[in-house]
Amino acid sequence: MAKDLSAIAPVIPIDRLDTLPLHRQIWEGFRTAILCGHLQPGQQVPSSRHLAEDLEVSRCPVLGAYARLLSEGYFESRVGSGTFVSASLPGQLPHRRRSRSTTGGSRCLSRRSSLLPRCETVPWRHGWGPFGVHQSALDQFPFAAWSKLLAEHGRKPRLRAIHHNDPMGLDRFRDAICSYLRTARAVECDPSQIMIVSGSQQALEITARVLLDPGDPVWIEEPGYPLAQSVLLGAGCRIVPVPVDDEGINVSAGVNLLPKARAAFVTPSHQYPLGVTMSASRRLRLLDWARDNGAWVVEDDYDGAYRYDTPSVSSLQGIDSDARVIYIGTFSRVIFPSVRVSYIVIPPDLIERFMAVRFSLGIFPSYLFQEVLTDFIRAGRFARHIRRMRALYKERRTALVESVQNTCGDMLEIHGAAAGMHLTVTLPLGFNDAEIASQAAKYGLCLWPLSPCYMNKPRHGFVLGFATTPADQMAGAVHQLWRLLKKQPGPS
Ligand SMILES: Cc1ncc(COP(=O)(O)O)c(C=O)c1O
């Protein structure tokens, strides 16, 4: 190859205003030119001095870029001849050009990932405002105390614990959770049964991997929590939607549909999304079914801390005499979702299996929030915050119920207002909840449609969060909702 020709530099776009240093821009320019085939293996590149002159930069960044390209194997230097694109690089590099579309050839993906709903950017999931679900009154959170604890543990971490910790989580944190669960949720447990995980999704993922094989049938509530459906679909399970009535999951209907399911996923304290509390007789029926069929029950107790008109309802796990219930709890509702700390209460004989799966998935949970939450609980701040929020949310819940009854009573039927941070309203036939929810942002509302919670024939309505809207602003928000509903074409 003639030296004078091959030593022509590729176009290297230098931008002096860019925050990216010049040596990175030069390195990137050459690497892209090689990968795109603009520079061929064996082709000579200009000397660092010539390139610096061409680019009107000092030699220093060029030398830095060349050194990196040499060490990465894109360049080679030949004594007495100069610097070349490595002759050993494969000749047909153009196909390595990054492309967003495929050019043929099979790209086999798993069938189970194709079953998952698309992770779309929908206004309700990403919006903020009246009626947003999974949103708590963050302006009421004791951030001063929280950040003091964060700073303390950030400054003085326990060195052994930050290096590596137990796949089950920090001991003192598990002790604190155990005391809380025994007292507040009547969960039968010992700290050794508690595993800390990052979010209820991960809790269910680990549980599914321990208990279920691809193809195993699982009862889920219909309507139910879409993210639980996703985890189970992702695990390759066969989902069996079992209708929910005003006593919770209808066990007889489940038995008619598929008695030999391997597990049932339920939200007994506050069914998501309908808000029903599972009756005592249903709980016992479900546990009997599980025992008689060798099945498991997964209890998601995501917001059991908040109940307004009656004393709190204890866990299903607490009345299970056959160690068939896997209990999942979370700090997302009481602290905030991005804390990503949840826990599983595991039947004693399954602990080892859970640990093995947990280790394979994420080794162990992140350290800092475990320490902070332990102190937060031990100092009584957690219990105090729940008490305060219970009073506040009760007031907001009542304001929402009254406003809906007064303003939209002819259109919306209220369900499940006794607990939690949301209630559900159903629309008359003929209305499309997702379409209305998409328009809601213009009205400053964050409406969550009900229909995506169904796997089969959906009912349309909304899951209405009430935690973030002050009671005296609730009527205004409901009025906006009413104006939006009035604009709809309605039943055809
Ligand atoms: C039914 C249900 N389960 C669990 C959770 C909590 O999920 P995570 O712990 O992943 O934030 C939520 C939302 O707060 C929920 O609505």
Short descriptors:
binds pyridoxal-5'-phosphate; Aspartate Aminotransferase, domain 1; about 500 residues; Arc Repressor Mutant, subunit A; 4-stranded antiparallel beta sheet; 15 strands; about 40% helix; Aspartate Aminotransferase, domain 2; alpha/beta
Please provide a written account of the structure.
Strands 4-11-10-9-8-5-6-7 form an 8-stranded mixed β-sheet, sandwiched between helices. Strands 12-13-15-14 form a 4-stranded antiparallel β-sheet. A hairpin with a 2-residue loop joins strand 6 and strand 7. The protein starts with a helix and ends in a 6-residue tail after the last helix. It folds into 3 domains: 22-96, Orthogonal Bundle (Arc Repressor Mutant, subunit A), CATH 1.10.10; 141-379, Aspartate Aminotransferase, domain 2; 385-486, Alpha-Beta Complex (Aspartate Aminotransferase, domain 1), CATH 3.90.1150.10. It has helices spanning 3-6, 22-35, 48-55, 59-72, 111-114, 123-126, 143-155, 159-163, 171-185, 200-211, 226-234, 251-257, 280-293, 351-362, 368-378, 381-408, 433-440, 471-486; strands spanning 44-45, 75-78, 82-85, 194-197, 217-222, 238-245, 248-249, 263-266, 296-300, 325-330, 342-345, 413-415, 422-426, 448-449, 461-465. 40% of the residues lie in helices and 13% in strands. The longest helix has 28 residues, at 381-408. Residues 1-5 have low confidence and may be disordered. It is built from 18 helices and 15 strands. With 492 residues, it is an alpha/beta fold. Helix 7 (143-155) packs across helix 15 (368-378), helix 9 (171-185) packs across helix 15 (368-378) and helix 16 (381-408) crosses helix 18. The protein binds pyridoxal-5'-phosphate. Pyridoxal-5'-phosphate (PLP) is lined by residues 134, 199-201, 225, 267, 272, 300, 302, 330, 332-333, 337, 342. Pyridoxal-5'-phosphate binds at residues 134, 199-201, 225, 267, 272, 300, 302, 330, 332-333, 337, 342.
